[in-house]
Amino acid sequence: xxKAARKRIPRFAYDYLSGGIGLHSALxxxxxxxxxxxxxxxxxxxxxxxxxxxxxxxxxxxxxxxGVAPVGLGxxxxxxxxxxxxxxxxxxxxxFCLSGFxxxxxxxxxxxxxxxxxxxxxxxxxxxxxxxxxxxxxxxGYENLIITVDIPTVTRRDHDIRNGLSVPPRLNLRTLCxxxxxxxxxxxxxxxxxxxxxxxxxxxxxxxNLEKIGMFIQEVIEGHASLERLKRVRDxxxxxxxVKGVLNPDDARDCLHIGADAIVVSNHGGRQLxxxxxxxxxxxxxxxxxxxxxxxxxxxxxLTGLDIIRYLxxxxxxxxxxxxxxxxxxxxxxxxxxxxxxxLSEEFRCTMAQIGCGKIADLPGFLEPGS
Length: 371
Ligand SMILES: Cc1cc2nc3c(=O)[nH]c(=O)nc-3n(C[C@H](O)[C@H](O)[C@H](O)COP(=O)(O)O)c2cc1C
Prior knowledge:
Helix content is about 45%, strand content about 10%.
């Protein structure tokens, strides 16, 4: 899917999706750390012919313990990417998390995915904007709010700067030629309209040019999500509050203490800090800190159903994938969304049977000690 997407979408979109930060050490390590988790199969017990793959998570019943991570600017990867993934998530009975910086709106995705839609938000410097967007999510029926805390300032990614995907954007002749070499992408983008930050466009300064919009977005992002601010969100949001981007057990303990309902152990797909540890390596210490019952989601590097099992074996209750879903939509357009969900589901089910594990709760017992 990754290779096919590379051929089908413009270079700036592919670089934006696939890249990490810096020298890509954290990105590589996400994959290496997963590969190092070894599972020892048990063949003679015969209780896993029909493994139970469903789970109850944060009060909802899902068919599988995985979902679609929030990915901003999905519309530059493929037009309507969020709508396609949200609709497929709904029919596969798994959650879809809408990024606050998606190119689809909160209302649109609620219509498509109903209670399978979760909303992810970056704390805006202006509290009024936070309140408006929380209220909108609430009014549209969202029950899961994710606050992402691992972008305390604007991020510098070299490839995005080179490709003009900076804040403010600098689209140049190279970007345009790049788009023109991908006619299917270009045609569908023309038909769908230029991707926009749908949740924020009404707040843009009047008659703003690209530069002014860029400055506005920069200010919006710079609303550092401190513990104090998370406490206020806790008071404002009556349903599940999930904190995303936690790697340090002390941060995890703080989230528990302020009454968060879950955390996402994540290094943002290796896109924020090149020296960040992988989520899978952080899970055991975080699990020890928060105890056995606190819901933990984890992400980073997932490309197969086996990877999801590795995370569950290491102490996660639920797993997200970001790029895996987007590569499929980039490669195949709308049908890619259901296709990748079918593949991950089947791989998940087959791997459970292959290792002789009949239920998710037993997975930790199959890991090689120390792996
Ligand atoms: C292109 C791209 C955009 C992303 N945008 C967001 C975002 O808007 N909000 C967020 O919380 N995380 C964002 N993430 C991080 C993902 O939610 C997730 O943590 C990460 O993709 C997991 O790693 P994986 O892509 O290897 O599965 C983004 C990731 C990618 C690749």
